[in-house]
Design goal:
The structure holds 2 protein chains of 2 kinds. Helix content of chain A is 40%, strand content 10%. By secondary structure, chain A is α/β, with parallel strands linked by helices. The longest helix of chain B is centred in the first third of the chain and has 22 residues. Classes of the chains: A alpha/beta, B alpha/beta.
Chain lengths: 398, 336
Amino acid sequence: MPKNTIPALSQKTKRQTPVKGLTVPDTAITLHTVKISPHAKKVNVINLKKSKKAKYGGYTAVPSQEFSALKKIIEDKFDELSHSYDDKLKSALKGLNKNKDAARLHVASVIADKVKGFFSQFSTQNIKEQLSSIALWATSTEVDEFGLDPIFAAKAKIFFDLLYEKWWRIETIGIQNLPTTGRALLVSNHSGGIPIDGAMIVTSIFKEHPAKRITRPLVEDFAYYMPFVNSFLIRTGSVRASQENAERLLEKDQLVIVFPEGLKGIGKPYKYRYQLQRFGRGGYIKLAMKTRSPIIPVAVVGAEEAYPIIGRIDWLGKLFGAPYLPMTPFFPLLGPLGAIPLPTKWYIKYGEPIDMSRYSDEDIEDDILINKLSEQVRTRIQEMLMEVLKQRKSIFFG
Amino acid sequence: MGNKKKNNVKDKPNVKRIAITGVNSFIGSNLIRRIANDPRYQIIAIDTRKPDFLEKNIKFFKVDLTEPMIDAAIAGIFKSEGIEEVVHLAFLSSPIKDTTISHELEVIGTLNVLHASTAVKVKKFVIRSTSMVYGANATNPNFLTEEHPLMADPRMAYLRDKIEVEHLVRRFRDKNPQAVVTVLRPCAIMGPTVKNFLTSYFASPLILTILGFDPLFQFVHEEDVIDVFRVAIEDNYHGIFNIVGRGILPFSTVLKLAGKVGVPIPYPIAYSMVSMLWSANLSPVPPTFLNFLKYTWLADGAKAKKIMKFESRYTIKDTLESFMGSQRLRELRLVE
């Protein structure tokens, strides 16, 4: 092979930018022996050999002289060619050996394309476009006011769907208790070391409810200090648990999930499973009263066994910005593998809505009433948990 | 001649006599250009250096707000000119290293202007603050309303001064029930001509970000900010108002739309890096500002929309585009 070869020409390039109006298969024509004399102003096509393999000919070009000269000639030629491109090519394709001029032109134009194509990949414009398309992968340029990114959430949903259908085989009970329109405050038990029950409730409502409603879970503060976790939560639609945020969402007639057990729920040891912890300070009752939202009790069964907590490692958790690292029989003993939650069978039960519109604004200030109502909701969820647990025969098979 | 003119103005009941401090600042210079020829206003300009764009009908007073006993001098000017309204804009747009100077200018300067305003019993006091005073905290609600406590990290001298100014203004408001006190808290100001620490942060092609954090961002276009000050002068709006642009975006998307490459660095490393760059005059902000790249600090513009009828004309994308467009011209040295 001669010294000054164009890399793009000497190899069979697999990917090639298609030329307008030309539908030659990539492999049909390989350029073989095109010699360019440096002084000549046009491309001399010498020694066109017909390949046995390709239907249309199959030629390969080997350039013999300087590369810059070639490039210049080709570029000059290219514009000229492109005008009569379609016609000439048609005839070229009809019979390459009959019409030698057309064949020459065709070969020259293919060289021109290859050269141009080869150089265009290195143009700054192209590199910038490539980079930005990589950068914008799985992100949209619009988010809602709480940072929910629809494209990112759709990608995450594939993963959550898999967990929902295949890993935990979740069954939903009483989905008809959720309103098709309008606001509601969902109150659920919380569990599982890694609090993924919120995501599963969201998935369940989106999949099973006829209105395909989007639910916004309220998440504890600590998650917002954790790198990566915080941005993942925001993009997938979680909202930091605060009175202001919840009020704003409910005023917009959305479904909101709260976990009044909070951190105590996530970290409760295995032996206390399905025993509801204290329900915060009743902030969610005030919220429901203020926004006149019905409360829908939710019981999640199965999640509390998915990640059986037998201990906590506080100092390791602090490293990641979390309050503690949950210890299970498998984690951290088996390393990251041990962090995979167990494939238990889950049930999500939605209870009947509790009407809160009968309370007036003065009742919000009545702390004893708030506490009483909170306790009632807690008892209701505890009952629902027990009902489902009674019917369940196996942790893993339901 | 001057006296005669002044007396003429004083006789007209419909002409508001307004003092604007810090006319060399970005908002000050643009605002005064907009309202200079408005027959409803008679304006005096106050700054340490006389700007070259002043119209002939505007009187200029060279005043250094940090000098001792300057409050009496300002009160004298206000009295002789019959000032009824004060627009206080003499603030720093970016943090500076010498925190003593910045404290003197921002806090003591404001205190002096407030003293003078109290002395002449002004009818209106408009002051520029920033939505950064709420601070960037993980526990912030998604939208910070005007009632939210000012929780900016006290290690940030720049914002500590701004918060102190807010407290001074609140005291002034209690002391002067006759005055309409308008506090405007614009969020990050962006646009083709404004220069502040944010635009210099966005000027470089590689942008430092914090690894694993991607807060939501909002900007307000410079035109909107100038406009809202004009509106605040025109009508009476008593209270504090957040001034924000339309739309929010995650910081990563902001960078992508601006064609910048984000360089994510873990927070502790970024902190020490920026503190070194800050002491070498290579960073526009001290490292304490990195919290604004970690946590969301969106201000809620609902109050300004409801009461001032202020609605931004620019979406966040328009704002970014206008900034980037002028940035490109600046790189080609076609504009200053």
